[in-house]
Amino acid sequence: VEVKIEVVIPEKERSKEEMSPNGKASPLIYKVNGTARHYHLEEHPIASNPYHNPKDMVEASVCHVKDLENGQMREVDLGCGKALLIKESGEFHAVGHKCPHYGAPLVKGILSKGRVRCPWHGSCFNISTGDIEDFPGLDSLPRFQVKIEKEKVYIRASKQALQTQRRTKMMAKCISLSNYNLSSTNVLIIGAGAAGLVCAETLRQEGFSDRIVMCTMDRHLPYDRPKLSKSMDSHPEQIALRPKEFFCTYDIEVLTEMQVVTVDVKSKIAVFKDGFKMEYNKLLIATGNTPKTLSCKGKEMENVFNIRTPEDANRVVKLATSKNVVIVGASFLGMEVAAYLAERAHSVSLVELEHVPFKKFFGERVGRAVMKMFENNRVKFYMQTEVSELREQEGKLKEVVLKSGKVLRADVCVVGVGAVPATGFLKQSGISIDSKGFIVVNKMMQTNIPGVFAAGDAVTFPLALRNNKKVNVPHWQMAHMHGRIAALNMLAHGTEISTVPYLWTAMFGKSIRYAGHGEGFDDVIIQGDLDELKFVAFYTKSDEVVAVASMNYDPIVSKVAEVLAAGRTIRKRDVDAVVSLSFRTGDMSWLTGKGS
């Protein structure tokens, strides 16, 4: 039985720019009036496009019922687009075939216990609903109807969904914003990165219909920050996580170029740099980190950059073209910038205190293989030294002087020597902060102050994978998950975080994928060929695998991530079996037992 309901809700668009109480123009406050009644959490939120035009639908026979075994996936063509057909526990499911994050083919991913994991970056999707269950990415997969007739499998799908290969989950809207005091909000989110945006979206997905305000020091709406170093000439609108119309549609207000300087947790008031005050009921702090700067002479001169914004990245590319570039720090950012500029600049030099890049993260052998790849692409390394001085000529950078005595020609300098949590404004707040400046939260992303949550790069939290050790994981995927868990617990769901850290880096058209938390590893087991840059590295502590990294060895990192997510322990003796099984489609039988 198919029931169709049409809901029409009148809306009037408010002005997108209003005056703040101090008389200054408020920076980019996007709002739209919603309906005049409240939505309660048990009600269904309004879908943006819940029903498809019958003319938009297509139906096709895609295979015989015996063509797929349990645990198998197949990409099938419906004529106007493709779908991913899955058979698990005797049932067929059909969803979008591309990961909405960066378009990875999910047929090459990992199927396990009702979900499929992306082979590139680890996003997970429920095969019954298409809903995203682990990150990165914001959208879910479209779900298609499957029917069996005369032992043939048919898929019925929307042409539009087949073409877009993504679906935004249904969200509630807000009650009339005209009823609100501008200086008061139910939820205030400080920071507009992945954690802040996912928190806001999750609240709306769960039916939350009160006011949500996000504030950011940035001039832009939330954007894909990892692309600042991986795709440096991207413009803000190209890497926006959501168009501004999205924020209007779902009544998520964004205040740009607004800095919170103090938080009074007793009065529940955030004070901004310009004196504006905002009262809140629930607070999420997702301020991320602040890049470290050089401490040497000349650090303030022109053409010395910390890359924090699209404008920074764009300007570095422009200034570096056919010029001499010096990058300080073989961090992820520093190495990605070096790789991006290698073909554009006249020369690229990289200065690093360690003797091998990525040694603490990937180990010495993998670090040396990556270093060799860079050297083969004209990047020159100056290791085990630091910058002692930046010299100028006519006000612009001309030379970088190293403590080793070497002098490097430099028209542009990019600094990538790490970062510190952006939590200085909380020192007198009463919110618990550790000795390194990280906000301490529990498994529900709650701080020691009721109603105050924190997420993203600025927090330490208990990682189930490492026996609930308090860790800081400053990666894109983890920020997404933090935001979701914080939102659920603002709504008193009592949800604890349980995810496997997953990250990637891209250099010279190659990616290193990584899952787990390898801090403190004492051994590295490498399979494959480091010289050919086709390998997998297992990081162990005592006898247990705590992390894995690979290059040109998909989908093994996603396979291991799924094993760890299932609560399984991988021992050193299991490594050969993991590698051999990783290329067998759907073979996850070894997850079902107990123990290791």
From TrEMBL:
Determine if Transport is one of this entry's keywords.
yes
Q: Known InterPro entries for this protein?
A: FAD-oxidoreductase/Apoptosis, FAD/NAD-bd_sf, FAD/NAD-binding_dom, FAD/NAD-linked_Rdtase_dimer_sf, Reductase_C, Rieske_2Fe-2S, Rieske_2Fe-2S_sf
Q: Which UniProt keywords apply?
A: 2Fe-2S, Apoptosis, Electron transport, FAD, Flavoprotein, Iron, Iron-sulfur, Metal-binding, Mitochondrion, Oxidoreductase, Transport
Origin organism is Lanius ludovicianus
Its function, per the record, reads: Induces apoptosis through a caspase dependent pathway. Reduces mitochondrial membrane potential.
Q: Which GO terms describe its cellular component?
A: mitochondrion
Q: What is this protein called?
A: Apoptosis-inducing factor 3
* UniProt main location, coarse: mitochondrion
